[in-house]
Write the structure tokens for this entry.
Amino acid sequence: MPHATQHADVAVVATAELDSALRGGPFHVALRAAIAARGLPLQRVQHHLSRYGVKVGVTSLSYWQQGARRPQRPESLRAVRALEEILQLPEESLIRLLAETDEPSCAGRPAGRSYRSLVEASGVLERMLAELGSPLDGGLHTLGHHERVRIGERRELAGRESQHIVRAHKDGVDRFVAVHHGDPGCAPERMRVHALENCRTGRVRVHHDTGVLVAELLFDTRLRAGDTFLFRYGIQDGTAGMSREYVRGFGPAGGQYALQVRFDEQALPSRCHRFAQHSPAAPRSGRQELPLSGRHHSVHLVEPRVRTGIVGIGWDWE
């Protein structure tokens, strides 16, 4: 039966290619090999994903397996984890490959957080929010967010303070979940959360390996849809080594964001700049030098209306 033998040979080759791709990557090659090995058309893959409650278009799946795009958003990362089950792959096999492409360094300067670390932190954050029973936006739209970051005399991220102005888009909202992602080598279990105005601290969860801390900030009122609220809190950090940048990621477009970074007078940087990224995997753009103020040793940026992506301030030490 030559046809049966030929089919068996093809299956063996497909399996061998899949094993090789899962070991060495890259992600898109492994995904393409896995889909081929299971003999599933992309429409069937999409159907299976929908049964997991994940919506991904056939075009996106095609781009992923061609390497034209990479899964980046939380919904896309959920799809990758579901694909591991649908395609009968070892747990974390695709996520691991997806995370292995680090963000390149810029102008000879050490890179910031790698794409790998951001992907890992995204998955951890998703699980931590689920543990707290909190959706990603918590029923609140941000109208304004002013963030003040302090860099200490050891050049470390000493802490930050955030003031939020929010509007509820559903009834019964009585809390906000704050997220802090420390610098590499930090110890989130040693960080402290301080409720400063119109809130109090609830449950706090940390994940040592990724440096992620999440904390509930409880309001003393239940907001109705349309109500606005203002609150302020701080994170005491100081647990990592030398800090080189501070970044803030945004999902849906929102209100105004202002970031101020203030340096200890014993640890002043040689230069500072702002930057933006469309996603953790995208190249940085919009670089602009920021002059350090003479008296307060600080720099800042203002986004009148934030867009999906990342903005941040980086600095160089002598």
About this structure: Residues 1-14, 101-112 have pLDDT under 50 and may be disordered. The chain has seven helices and 13 strands. Helices lie at 2-24, 27-38, 42-51, 58-66, 74-86, 93-98, 115-131.
